[in-house]
Amino acid sequence: MTDLFARLGLTVADLKGGTLAVHSPIDGVELARVRETAADEMPTVIARAEKAFKAWREVPAPRRGELVRLLGEELRAAKDDLGALVTLEAGKITSEGLGEVQEMIDICDFAVGLSRQLYGLTIASERPGHRMMETWHPAGPVAIISAFNFPVAVWSWNAALALVCGDPVIWKPSEKAPLTAMASMNIFARAIARFGDAPEGLAQLVIGGPEVGDALVSAPQVPIVSATGSTRMGRIVGPKVAARFGRAILELGGNNAMIVAPSADLDMAVRAIVFSAVGTAGQRCTSLRRLIAHNSIREDLVARLTKAYASLPIGDPRAATTLIGPLIDHGARDRMLAMLEQARGEGGTVHGGRAVAKGAPQGGAYVEPAIVEMPGQTAAVCAETFAPILYVLGYDTLDEAIALQNDVPQGLSSCIFTLNLREAETFLSAAGSDCGIANVNIGPSGAEIGGAFGGEKETGGGRESGSDAWRGYMRRQTNTINYSANLPLAQGVKFDI
Ligand code: UN1
Asked: Which residues lie across from 196 on neighbouring strands?
């Protein structure tokens, strides 16, 4: 462990110098006590970002891309170590820890290409001898507030885009995962050293609780706040950013469903369900939480799932065979068990869902994933519980299934398993899924970085990562250029003096 920390540039002073205790979810052991940023340091941090912005916005975008290319190279070199630290600090199984770092590498590659694009439109002008166009300019410092469950990838989605767009970043990671953030900053520092002339303060890290977050959320000098976490957090952040006319990119709760139609390839569906419901121990924003199965296949599907669930290896996420690691902490386990009680009270039949006492490391919060057959979409089903609980509902008509899928407050990810083209296209149509992500014959989780990521309703409406999400990190300027010798006014207005 000490070697791992050292390879990631974490010094004894980093690990022992502070007040914030960091525990591994694997066994509850204290990994470090890290220094927290004091609220009164925040003005200096923000001023540094403003100064960095003034320099960075004038660096040509392809040159900014070069820094992100180097970051991608450094991440490739550090992939195994950073992945292992994700496992240690967030409890993800090894393959998912590595996958998270791969997601960082992928977004760097994407952003490098983007750095030679960032293009606007030219628009036909109604006036002779005039040209209209739009230019995308850097917007200013971007605050990134991230959650424990993707402790490094979400930073990179935002940072890689922001940096090529000309914006410095200030990152407040989850208090449960500061070490992976510190290690990522060390990896970034290696890229900066190779790059040569980046302004100081281009990427900063602040560690702490709501006070530190609030300083970023309330600062008019930080025009963009990208926040990932609970809907409860978003309800605080969104209005505060709006009150100062800043731009919030919110990625909040999900309550993702899969509709399984009678024609579905059930073998494929079962694999997709198990990965998306129990992967990351049900702690992805995109985790599958609701299974809406056609009544003609529902019993068969539940039988297959309970059988598959019975043999899932739960335990130390570092072991090669483990598929389900720990929940982030004991509080998460308590919330899961309480929600299962509530679901029972609402008429649910629970399979699994017990705390794991034997075979897993002591001190961690290990649980059996649960399948809960529900009589309807009750309060428990409508809530996002960050744990491996899969509610099963039945349906008879596709309209009914789509109505159930949409009838929750959240709108992140969704999918249908069907071999019927009409059903698939109806699900993707304007009258189909109301989510930001809608898939066919793929589970709701594990999205690639190339698409825009985010969702509607209580998920917050933000879009990050691929497609044209970069526009969220820039300001659009409309330019009209008159190359004629006259001054005609738009709309034919006459104003002769
Ligand atoms: C999250 O859970 O916050 O689609 C992000 C996925 C990942 C990202 C999840 N690419 O599951």
From this structure: none
H or E element in which residue 156 lies: helix 153-165
Q: How far apart are CA 283 and CA 281, in angstroms?
A: 5
Question: Tokens in use for 49?
Answer: 């970002």
User: What number of other Cβ atoms are within 10 A of residue 38's Cβ?
Assistant: 11
Q: 223 is written with which tokens?
A: 């025009």
Q: Is residue 255 a contact partner of residue 459, using CB atoms and an 8 Å limit?
A: no
- Ligand 1 touching residue 385 (CB < 6 A): no
Residue 17 pLDDT class (50, 70, 90 cuts): confident
Between the CA of 446 and the centroid of ligand 1 the distance, in Å, is 6
Query: Measured between alpha carbons, how far is 384 from 391 in angstroms, rounded to an integer?
Result: 11
Closest by CA to 65, choosing from 190, 161, 201, is 161
Closest CA to 364 of 325, 321, 338: 325
56 lines ligand 1 (CB under 6 A): no
Cβ contact 342:382 at 8 Å = no
Task: Please report the pLDDT score of residue 408 as a whole number.
Answer: 98
3-state SS class at 324:
strand
Strand partners of residue 476: 136
| Separation CA 302–CA 213 (nearest Å) | 43
Known catalytic residues are: 251, 285
Which of 285, 384, 415, 437 has most ligand 1 atoms within 8 Å of CB, for mutation? Answer: 285
- pTM score, two decimals? 0.98
Query: Ligand 1: which atom is nearest the Cα of residue 283?
Result: 2
Q: Residues 98-146: pLDDT tens digits?
A: 999 999 999 999 999 999 999 999 999 999 999 999 999 999 999 999 9
| Residue 39: other Cβ atoms inside 10 A | 15
